[in-house]
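Progress narrative, work stream C.
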Amino acid sequence: MENEHPEDQLNAYAFFLDRKAKDVFARLDYALKSGMHIQREYPRPGALYRFLETHFASLKQYYADLFEMLLTKGGDEWNVYYYIDFQEGSRGNVPNSPQYRMYLKPEYILVGLLLFKVYKLDANIELNKIPDFINLLYQEYEEVMGKLHLLFAKISGDTGSDFNDLKVNDIIYKAFGEFELLGWIAREEDDKDYFVYQPSFERLRQMYYPQIEGIDGLLKNSEL
């Protein structure tokens, strides 16, 4: 019978017994259900990460039992990150939650694929400014950027000749805004041009690795 042994349920959700739960859990729960990926260096301060690290097993049980969601641990060693995923065949049991209602638009996915290629695959790991990323695309990936203009115009339905660099730059900045909400990058409050690539950006690689490997063909064929 459900709740026949409430003490067993309390033990399963032992994180509630932590004296820090009152201050931390509500913020943690909202962040996870909003699609945020939580890692050691972001978001700051690190209380959410430490709480997850300490109580991962009981929190995992809690989300599985009550919400049909999978609290998942990715990465390793210093690059560990946590996020909410769904059980197979389920979209979760939180009808009013913003959880993954924020699907990335195709053009933002494409910006993410390019960032992963430029930053990780092509080893531009010193890159930390959005304008520098844009300039690098124009300078070293000129052919790609020409195709990108056409693809962005096609996606947006703006096939006129006025789809210019400013519109492309605007899409790139909006994409970085989405990446920040997901915790894939960190940005400074007083300098939104500056970003820090986070371990959880690996999630995009996991979901779209074939497209990253064949980015030129992806752009040529507009397959998103």
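Work stream C, second folded protein:
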Amino acid sequence: MDRLRLTEIFFSLQGETRTVGLPTVFVRLTGCPLRCQYCDTAYAFHGGTWYDMDAILAEVKQYQAHYVTVTGGEPLAQKACHLLLQRLCDVGYEVSLETSGAMDISQVDARVIKVMDIKTPGSSEVEKNDWNNIRHLLAHDQVKFVICDHGDYEWARQVMDKYKLSDICQVLFSPSYQQLKPGELADWILQDRLPVRMQIQLHKYLWGEAPGR
């Protein structure tokens, strides 16, 4: 099926990852098999509107942006997501995919920048991680840990060491919004000289938790 169920398409500043601050079109797919305790997009779990591929590309085009992020929910829960990623790359966008890491990433177009969120114990969904995905990461990809507390931080450090993640791709540490003070996480990273990029969710500091931002 060459259709996808979408919650929204919107134009904003990228709030995370290495393109933070750059104007980006976001294509948010509907549905997610996970229920992370800190989820800020629960409105995307249900509902949505069916779009065919041409309609999605036409709406993305109107924003005249270079960067496109496909997100969710969990975008890979819809099989046609792979075709959307391919078609966006084919017309010249720099495309990133925000995925939970609970879904198989092996078939994602190699041109796509995969931003894979490894779920920490504090997420309440740590058991959903598909560790086989690590072997499919490429140098331009990024691995993200959302850190809820110091226990999450230590757990993430152990995962980094076990899989040598910083040798594979860039690693991002992000404090869970309003659960962990950004300064605390920054201090831990500096104290341990951890080879990660500290990030905050820029869009939330600009606009709060409003949908479509």
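Residues 150-163 form the longest helix (14 residues). No further action is required on this item.
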